[in-house]
Amino acid sequence: MKKIKVIISGGGTGGHIYPAIAIANAVKAKRPDAEILFIGAEGKMEMEKVPQAGYKIIGLPIAGLQRRLTLKNLKVPFLLLKSLNKAKKIIKDFRPDVAVGVGGYASGPTLKTAEKLNIPTVLQEQNSYPGITNKLLAKKANIICVAYDNMERFFPKDKILLTGNPVRQDILNLSHKRNEALAYFNLKNELQTVLVIGGSLGARTINQVIEKMLPYFKENNIQLIWQTGKYYAEKAKQAVNEINAETIITMPFISRMDYAYAAANIVISRAGALSVSEIAVAKKPAIFIPSPNVAEDHQTKNAMALVNHHAAIMVKDDEAQAKLKNELDNLLNDKNLQNELIKNITPLGKPNAADDIANEILKLADR
Predict the structure, then answer these.
(1) Which of 282, 271, 16 is nearest to 126 (CA)?
(2) Mind listing the pLDDT tens digit for each residue in 229-288?
(3) Which residue would you say has higher pLDDT here, 73 or 330?
(4) Which of 111, 244, 302, 344 keeps 20 to 30 A from 33, CA to CA?
(5) Bigger pLDDT: 78 or 34?
(6) Banded model confidence at residue 2, pLDDT cuts 50, 70, 90
(7) Strand order in the sheet with 121-125
(8) Dihedrals phi, psi of 230, to nearest 5 degrees
(9) Calpha distance 165→1 (Å, rounded)
(10) What pLDDT is attached to residue 248?
(11) What angle do CA 27, 32, 36 make, to 5 degrees?
């Protein structure tokens, strides 16, 4: 069997980077001698996270258009041209068998160049509403791995494969971890636990609403694991200290998400593609508060894909102050509704996504 070479490109956010690393790990598990090279965007978080995962990465000088008028936008065409030239050199030097794009700035020039050089390409689209880069690349891609139904609205139907999004391996089997998880957070088994996550940087609306709801959690004996993000961490800690609530845990970032999901009865979260996929695999009743600050409002579309299956509850960002407490209280006090959401979200979770995508990559590489 020949030694294969794979380029994986994209990044910008954890929602692109962690699936990319999961795909790389799955390829390596099947073919330990595979050579994998990442291509990212200079100055973005993949340049730090990918080497930490044990892979080599090269950065392109690519940048995206700013939504507001700014002089930075004048540089974008030059950076794109520079990135295309650099991607061409990297690909010609490395000579990959397959190029994989996971979304994010760097995947555009990398996959475009690979397609021009007749290298097979795989796209991995995490969201229910694809970004412009993947829509443009789809015409020449060999396989498009998606996480939601009805994606033939955007991509050629014969290229689509419903794989789901790759998630962290440690959240695949949570049932036996509950006691360990409760001990880890120093929480009680007999009380209900709510997990609040707003991404690694935090989510301002969610944090502000949860801070106002702290007396509600204390008075009703509801345990709370609150990932605040680094910018809100101090304020949240202070607010919890002021009401002296021992069953409220705040953390800027949760390193053991498997324990957080295992301990939780209900999750409140933004609706980024990775969060939605993880919550589905973890089989948790969820209230999604989509971020309004993302392209094409894709978080609302991600959340609605579950709401339409009666598999989750959605509260709009601008209605969270008025509605979140009532929605949460209703869900906490309705075991039937919790069970219905669990039943309906379970089939939407795709625990084997990374393996399935790796198999497609290997099929193309071995042709």
Answers:
(1) 16
(2) 988 999 999 999 999 888 999 999 898 999 999 999 999 999 999 999 999 999 999 999
(3) 330
(4) 111
(5) 34
(6) confident
(7) 56-60, 35-41, 5-9, 98-101, 121-125, 143-146, 160-162
(8) -70, -30
(9) 28
(10) 96
(11) 55
The residue written with tokens 């609205």 in the block is 153
* Cα→Cα distances 337→124, 191, 285, 310, 326, Å: 33, 18, 9, 10, 14
3-state SS string for 184-201: HHCCCCCCCEEEEECCCC
Cα dihedral 330, 336, 340, 343 sign: positive
Position of tokens 């880890």? 184
Neighbours of 293 (CB within 10 A): 11
User: Is the Cβ–Cβ distance between 168 and 257 less than 8 Å?
Assistant: yes
- Dig out the tokens for 254 from the structure: 């949760």
Q: How many CA atoms lie within 13 A of 288 on its CB side?
A: 31
Distance of CA 366 to CAs 23, 24, 101, 111, 335, Å? 17, 16, 19, 19, 50
- Could you tell me the pLDDT band of residue 169, with boundaries at 50, 70 and 90? confident
Single-letter residue type at 65: L
Task: Please state, in angstroms and rounded to a whole number, the distance separating the CA atoms of residues 303 and 291.
Answer: 10
Largest CA distance in the chain: 64
Task: Name which of 332, 190, 312 is nearest 263 in CA terms.
Answer: 190
As a three-state string, the secondary structure of the chain is CCCCEEEEECCCCHHHHHHHHHHHHHHHHHCCCCEEEEEEECCCCHHHHHHHCCCEEEEECCCCCCCCCCCHHHHHHHHHHHHHHHHHHHHHHHCCCEEEECCCCCHHHHHHHHHHCCCCEEEEECCCCCCHHHHHHCCCCCEEEECCCCHHHCCCHHHEEECCCCCCHHHCCCHHHHHHHHHHHCCCCCCCEEEEECCCCCCHHHHHHHHHHHHHHHHCCCEEEEECCCCCHHHHHHHHHHHCCCCEEEECCCCCHHHHHHHCCEEEECCCHHHHHHHHHHCCCEEECCCCCCHHHHHHHHHHHHHCCCCCEECCHHHHHHHHHHHHHHHHCCHHHHHHHHHHHHHHCCCCHHHHHHHHHHHHHCC
